[in-house]
Design goal:
Shape: globular
Number of strands: 0
Radius of gyration: 20 Å
Helix content: over 70%
Distance between the termini: 27 Å
Low-confidence stretches: 1-12, 202-207
Mean pLDDT: 85
Structural class: mainly alpha
Length: 410
């Protein structure tokens, strides 16, 4: 066994401790993302000089995640997961503090700057699922990913309830929400002090080649399709979720209804994680990804049928389940297709692609929602959901192509 493998393969008890720490991080620190995506568009709407720009701050969060994904992956490869995760909570706390101050002084540009810094935290949170696979056997990897993603269940409860408690707690709406997010990020260094995932370390002279080049990795059919399906699953979830609070309020309901719908959506994103790993083990990664894409299509179909509260609830629940199957299945596909030595390359590239798609979706969401037919919320909501179709076709076609290939060529 070579030195690189020795560094990556931790004792089994340590692996479980890491999974527990990552589950708690997903639950506690991850609550800030559901909080931000519940109030970010509404806060942006209150500051933006043009309503078409309401969701631009949310798009800048995703842009920050896109631009920091590869550097964060390389940083963690060199200095360890713990250092990268702690750095991200510092950025998240500073970003939330800037956003709170921007709301206080009424500055849209400063609010966008704070949102951009939040994207660094978002990028690192995306690596929790990969960190769970470090040192895990191929058989355990899908379950480890699912356990960590299941931590989002607590985030789905904590986040929206904190929004309800803080949104109007101060004279400036939503300012207290961002102050609460600063407090959440202060938990990060305390939590990650218990994480034990060594950096892979440098290759000794004469050791085996550390892995494929980036170009070779991207030519791997499993990796390519996993990235496409992961990007589409996450981008479409973001496309619809970003516009949901604006659509709900625009169709005559209140911010409390929007928070309840987002809460139901986030619950649906993470509750299936308790059994997604077992389903992948039984039916295969590609099958579960395909089921996820079909559920995403069903979500769009329900949303297109009306704008009653029931339509919003059902559509967003289906959206969450579809994302869970599509994204966890894609992550498991990716994890199975590269070696530990290649993780610094491919994980950063993967999240750059995934969150690049999410960034485009976020920008498109605001434009479709706020600018369709003179800002009519019903027309905008229809346009958002109709936009899902070409991307589902792309991902579905790529997945079918992969599944039709002989196994020995995958």
């Amino acid at each position: 066994m070579n030195a690189s493998t020795d560094l990556i393969d931790a004792p089994a008890p340590g692996k479980w401790r890491n999974v527990i720490v990552l589950v708690l991080a997903q639950a506690l620190l991850g609550a800030q993302m559901s909080m931000i995506f519940t109030v970010g568009g509404l806060a942006g709407q209150s500051l933006a000089p043009n309503p078409c720009w309401s969701t631009l701050p949310l798009s800048l969060i995703v842009l920050g995640s896109v631009l920091s994904a590869q550097p964060m992956s390389e940083f963690m490869s060199a200095y360890g997961r713990r250092s990268g995760f702690i750095l991200s909570t510092v950025a998240g706390g500073i970003g939330a503090a800037i956003a709170a101050y921007a709301l206080y002084i009424g500055s849209f540009s400063l609010f966008m700057a704070g949102s951009f810094l939040t994207g660094i935290y978002m990028s690192a949170q995306g690596f929790y699922r990969f960190a769970a696979t470090d040192g895990a056997s191929p058989e355990f990897q899908p379950k480890a990913i699912s356990y960590v993603m299941a931590g989002g269940l607590a985030a789905a409860i904590i986040g929206p309830q904190m929004v309800k408690a803080t949104a109007q707690a101060m004279a400036v709406p939503f300012m207290a929400t961002y102050i609460a997010i600063v407090g959440i990020n202060l938990l990060g260094p305390l939590l990650f002090a218990f994480l034990r995932i060594p950096a892979p370390g440098r290759r000794a002279k004469g050791a085996a080649h550390p892995g494929r080049t980036r170009r070779e990795l991207l030519r791997d059919p499993v990796i390519a399709v996993a990235m496409i399906c992961g990007m589409v699953s996450y981008a479409l979830m973001n496309l619809v979720m970003t516009s949901t609070p604006l659509a709900v309020v625009g169709c005559g309901f209140d911010a409390g209804d929007a928070a309840d719908i987002v809460s139901a959506h986030v619950l649906a994103m993470y509750v299936p994680s308790f059994f997604t790993g077992a389903l992948i083990a039984r039916f295969g990664r590609e099958v579960i990804v395909g089921v996820g894409l079909l559920i995403l299509a069903a979500s769009g179909a329900v949303a297109m049928t009306g704008v009653e509260l029931d339509n919003f609830f059902i559509a967003l629940v289906l959206l969450g389940v579809g994302w869970n199957f599509g994204f966890i299945g894609s992550t498991a596909m990716l994890a199975s297709a590269h070696s530990p030595e290649e993780r610094g390359h491919i994980q950063g590239i993967n999240d750059f692609v995934v969150f690049g798609g999410v960034f485009v979706a976020s920008l498109s969401s605001g434009s479709l929602m706020n600018c369709a037919e003179a800002g009519d919320p019903q027309a905008g909501w229809q346009a958002v959901n109709l936009a899902m179709l070409p991307f589902l076709t792309l991902a579905g076609g790529a997945l079918i192509w992969l599944m039709m290939r002989p196994k020995e060529t995958r």
